[in-house]
């Protein structure tokens, strides 16, 4: 894959999201298994690793730090601050002093002297973005917020959910990033596993799996979404690739400023995602048609979680 610029550094456009190793989709990986997976990723050529203080209460940062020891110069490390667990919910704190303290804590967990790309995990509605922002990236923000922030300081990257079945970024943020010279980093590029064939029946997901509480996986919405995923998988088969590879290729086709960070706990999937390929324009157009936002059943998040997200939504 041809490298693309991210935070002033040329990296492969497919990086590795490190959330699922210890949080969100099932039991945490053992430390040894997680470090071995990360070592394999580096050996395969992955050079962009994305983590956050929220993931596993800092466990993800700790594991990544242990894995990159002695290999620090080979990787770009991104982490996030400002979003934290609060009982069964979440809290947001975008005050400058919180960001600085969070950076120090993340550096200690990672065992490094600098973080290459540091994101504000969510916009704090009580703190003007102009106060929160510095030489950082932003996560799940609108184009309006991005432009306000960019008036204060250049923004290295914006990270938000983006895949064929979550296309909110196309409303404004994707183009705003392009015009400002800001990298766009797509998280959940495989639709939380759906476009990688990883979800057959949401009822079989573990009780701690966050997808059980997301609207698109409910009994009301899942059948229609499953049909979309089935048609997508057939397209991938026709063109000789896996659904995951097709989803990543679709994302990367949206512009040279676009990156993707699929997560996995599987070595086979790690290898699969590293083999992303280009796809013809007619296939891109077919996917655009199949996943017209009106065809996707249910919003991305429950209402309480959506309240903490600044990105534009389809009407």
TrEMBL record:
| UniProt feature coiled coil, ranges | none
Mind telling me which Pfam families this protein's record contains? Aldo_ket_red (PF00248)
Q: Which GO terms describe its molecular function?
A: oxidoreductase activity
Q: What is this protein called?
A: Aldo/keto reductase
Query: Mind listing the UniProt keywords for this protein, alphabetically?
Result: Oxidoreductase
Q: What InterPro entries does the database record attribute to this sequence?
A: AKR (IPR020471), Aldo-Keto_reductase (IPR050791), NAD(P)_OxRdtase_dom_sf (IPR036812), NADP_OxRdtase_dom (IPR023210)
State the species of origin.
Niveispirillum cyanobacteriorum
One Gene Ontology CC term in the entry = cytoplasm
> So which domain of life are we looking at?
Bacteria
């Amino acid at each position: 894959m041809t490298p693309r610029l991210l935070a002033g550094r040329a990296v492969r456009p497919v990086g590795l999201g490190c959330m699922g190793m210890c949080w969100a989709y099932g039991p945490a990986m053992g430390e040894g298994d997680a470090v071995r997976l990360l070592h394999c990723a580096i050996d395969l050529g992955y050079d962009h690793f994305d983590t956050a203080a929220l993931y596993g209460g800092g466990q993800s940062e700790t594991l990544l730090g242990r894995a990159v020891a002695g290999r620090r110069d080979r990787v770009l490390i991104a982490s996030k601050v400002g979003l934290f667990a609060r009982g069964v919910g979440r809290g947001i704190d975008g005050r400058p002093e919180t960001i600085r303290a969070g950076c120090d804590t993340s550096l200690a967990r990672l065992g490094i002297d600098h973080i290459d790309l540091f994101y504000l995990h969510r916009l704090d509605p009580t703190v003007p973005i102009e106060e929160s922002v510095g030489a950082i990236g932003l996560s799940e923000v609108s184009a309006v917020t991005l432009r306000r922030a960019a008036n204060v300081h250049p923004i290295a990257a914006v990270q938000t959910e983006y895949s064929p079945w979550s296309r909110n970024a196309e409303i404004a943020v994707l183009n705003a990033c392009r015009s400002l010279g800001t990298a766009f980093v797509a998280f959940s590029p495989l639709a939380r596993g759906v476009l990688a064939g990883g979800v057959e029946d949401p009822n079989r997901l573990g009780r701690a799996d966050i997808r059980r509480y997301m609207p698109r996986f409910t009994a009301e919405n899942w059948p229609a979404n499953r049909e979309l995923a089935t048609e997508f998988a057939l397209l991938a088969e026709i063109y000789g690739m896996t659904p995951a590879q097709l989803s990543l290729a679709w994302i990367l086709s949206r512009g040279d400023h676009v990156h993707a960070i699929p997560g996995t706990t599987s070595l086979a999937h790690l290898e699969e995602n590293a083999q992303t390929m280009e796809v013809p324009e007619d296939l891109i157009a077919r996917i655009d048609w199949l996943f017209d936002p009106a065809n996707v059943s249910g919003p991305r998040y429950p209402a309480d979680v959506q309240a903490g997200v600044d990105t534009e939504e389809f009407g």
